[in-house]
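Thread amino acids onto this structure.
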């Protein structure tokens, strides 16, 4: 089969090549991928992988072999898949039954491919933060894939959402997604903030800490700034910073997000789309912050 392979000798460190077909376990289905969604984390993580490794968390496609255990979707089912041992950026993927969801016929598979890491991360980070109704929620890096989902889901939960972005242009469209305020950096953002979904890290994380009110919480879901955060003091009222990782078994959350998408209550923004032969170009656009929302590759 063809797959995206790590190759440190080429520009961007990734290329299309040939790899052995996966052999699914009895509790896995075999999926033929049609669309791949890129995430900052899997692209960045690929840099430390050995040559020949197949990266990629998110892919959507069609089941070509049902699980031999007799569980899970049947052959021909349209599915969105994630995580496992990566290896998602390939023509064929063996997928655990609790890391997929069946995609309704009226939902575009390309749109569905964007949900697993970005959508489930946003959903779980907000869920961990407690009730949102009437609370002030700050989302940093709000123009990216996770950020745009977090803005929408927080608004659906009844929060006053403050979307923080890197420039005025990056903030376009976020009010339509549910943001009450849009700020460049933290300019004009006032205390108290009850929940922070932080994609950026670095000095902005430390500044967000100073805006937290009593019992406020920061969920650290990303460090796209590549900088360290320095805190002069953590003494004071009760508030917390929590390390975050999405974790396994995304199937039920994917089903929930698909229902929201089907009902028109969640919007998918694909800011870059093209053939998977353009993986280098897509990665450069994502790292260069030229993508509003998600980048999707079509397997052709």
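Threaded sequence (300 positions):
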């Amino acid at each position: 089969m063809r797959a995206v392979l790590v190759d440190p000798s080429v520009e961007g460190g990734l290329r299309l090549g040939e790899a052995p077909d996966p052999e699914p376990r009895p509790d896995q289905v075999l999926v033929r991928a049609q669309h791949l969604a890129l995430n900052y984390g899997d692209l960045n993580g690929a840099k430390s992988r050995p040559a020949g490794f197949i990266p990629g968390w998110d892919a959507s496609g069609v089941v070509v072999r049902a699980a031999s255990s007799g569980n899970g979707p049947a052959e021909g089912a349209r599915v969105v898949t994630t995580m496992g041992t990566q290896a998602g950026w390939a023509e064929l993927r063996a997928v655990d039954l609790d890391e997929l969801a069946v995609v309704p016929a009226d939902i575009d598979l390309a749109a569905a491919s964007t949900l697993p890491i970005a959508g489930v991360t946003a959903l779980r980070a907000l869920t961990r933060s407690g009730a949102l109704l009437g609370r002030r929620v700050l989302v940093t890096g709000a123009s990216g894939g996770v950020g745009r989902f977090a803005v929408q889901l927080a608004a659906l939960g009844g929060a006053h959402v403050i979307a923080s972005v890197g420039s005025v242009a990056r903030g376009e469209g976020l009010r339509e997604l549910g943001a009450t305020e849009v700020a460049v950096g933290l300019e004009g953002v006032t205390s108290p903030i009850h929940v922070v979904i932080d994609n950026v890290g670095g000095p902005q994380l430390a500044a967000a800490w100073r805006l937290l009110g009593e019992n406020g919480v920061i969920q650290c879901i990303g460090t796209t700034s590549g900088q360290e955060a320095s805190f002069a003091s953590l003494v004071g009222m009760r508030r917390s910073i929590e390390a975050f990782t999405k974790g396994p078994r995304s199937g039920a959350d994917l089903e929930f997000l698909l229902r929201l998408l089907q009902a028109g209550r969640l919007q998918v923004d694909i800011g870059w789309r093209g053939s998977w032969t353009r993986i280098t170009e897509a990665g450069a656009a994502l790292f260069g912050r030229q993508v509003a929302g998600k980048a999707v590759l079509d397997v052709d």
